[in-house]
Design a protein that fits this description.
Blueprint lengths: L22 H35 L3 H29 L1 H20 L4 H29 L2 H31 L5 H4 L1 H15 L14 H24 L3 H23 L13 H30 L5 H7 L1 H21 L2 H17 L9 H29 L6 H26 L10 H29 L15 H4 L79
Helix pairs in contact: 1-2, 1-4, 1-5, 1-7, 1-10, 2-3, 2-4, 2-8, 2-15, 3-4, 3-7, 4-15, 5-11, 5-12, 5-14, 8-9, 8-15, 10-11, 10-14, 10-15, 10-16, 12-14, 13-14, 13-16
Amino acid sequence: MGGATPGADRAPGNGQPVRLSVPAGRWLVFTTVLGSAMALLDSTVVNVALPRIGLDLGADLPVLQWTVNAYMLTLAGLILLGGALGDRFGRRRVFVIGVVWFSLASLACGLAPNAGVLIAARALQGIGGALLTPGSLALIQSVIHPDDRARAIGLWSGFGGVGAAIGPFLGGWLVDGPGWRWVFFINVPLAAVCVPVALRHVPETSNPRAHGRFDVLGALLGAATLGLITYALIAAPQKGPSPAVVVPAVAGLALGMVFVAVERRRHEPMLPLSIFSSHQFSAVNAVTLCVYAAFGGFFFLSVLDLQVVVGYSALAAGTALLPTTTLMLLLSARSGELGKRIGPRIPLTVGPLLCAAGMLLMTRAGVGAVYWRDILPALLVLGMGMVVVVAPLTATVLASVDVARAGLASGVNNAAARAAGLIAVAALPLLAGMGPEAYRSADAFGDTFRRAMPICAGVLVLGAVLAWRTVRSDALEPVGLEPTGLEATGLEAGAGVGAEAGAEVGPAPERAEPAAVPAERAEGAVRPEGLLCRPECAYHCGVAAPPLDPGDVSTPPPLNPGERRSDT
């Protein structure tokens, strides 16, 4: 039912959306999965190498936290700018640049002679991730046919999740084999495959409405806010409530308020606050914060626990997490389709609760734990929760805005996810009472791990409650008129509103001028005819009809006699 994407957002050649069943659609999904999996893989593959990195470089726990968070900091702080660059200059072009940048930074990480160089190279990796991550999902949303998007996003989410989940296994194999530096070198051959395929098979798309200056100030303020708060959280266990902690924390909060004020007043902000006028978009991003904070904390601490407390080798620790990988691989695409069929509200409520139960079960992974009895059940429950929540979460975010803002929406959601993981990795050791040398002692780390998992579970329960109270069951349905059901009558989108099936259709109302069109419509807005519009519709009330697909701004159907059109 959804129409073609607009102008420059169409695939070249026939100007039509690409079906997932044709080779072009499959190549596109393969390329975007491979590119985004590099970033997702690297965010977890490093975790299993942390004990060996600490031993090799003589690092304490704060250095290990920064090894993870330097990457997450630049990724979260700049990912919105990366989405804007893709919308302006071409999503494929920026995606390819990001893949190349990421691979070169990975090479620098593998060659790092000390902890300082490693942390700096990890920050450079995050910049590459900020360029490639939003473009991968935006390409799917802007090129794939609307009828296939849910399945394509399910595949993207599923295989991307597999990339994140397989990271500990791959990292363990590399750490116990050629060494921890190869967890970074592995990205170079992946990029060598991804770039040629993208250049040959992926069509270029962009947002023809993207213009103006880039909000570099906003990007710097956002990154500085996250950096200062992260520094304060990591330093707090060692330095306590000293000026070295309090001053960065207060400065970070102050810069956060300045960031919001700047974005509100700028003509071309990096984060247009109008995007949050979609209540669904705001709600789903709140759920994202909860879910990915818990995921970030879990994957950071659990692999350390398996090595430090249970006594596994790096490879055994990575292999232990394979059940989550297998479940994501087998079921994520079906989860995307299920979310489309029954709506996202139930999956976004049940999924976090399952994940919370899995994390509580993981507290049994202590000294002398038996894998099949104490660890495997936790990972199976956690894996099922991830299957249920990941694909519908991503699809709902994109369904909440118009296609032309797919890069921005993807960037905002990814920024929320990465920022949540960043704060969790910084805050959990503080909240659980984990000292700088805790990871060197099985008893000390085991005690703090058992205190950290209920915290993660509580955050997931909060996410489930938010989803149940704020996410609509019809958030993934095609956008139409409520409550008349014009879609069922077979009337085209340009037909006049309020007509009964088979009745004569009169002239449609005149289209609003562009200046009168807000970015998102307020929920419950009433059309002149007295009909309710959906909040995802990016058109102003009074157009001939809202699009049948969120953000469908394709060429409208022929007008009725005497009706004039103003381009939007």
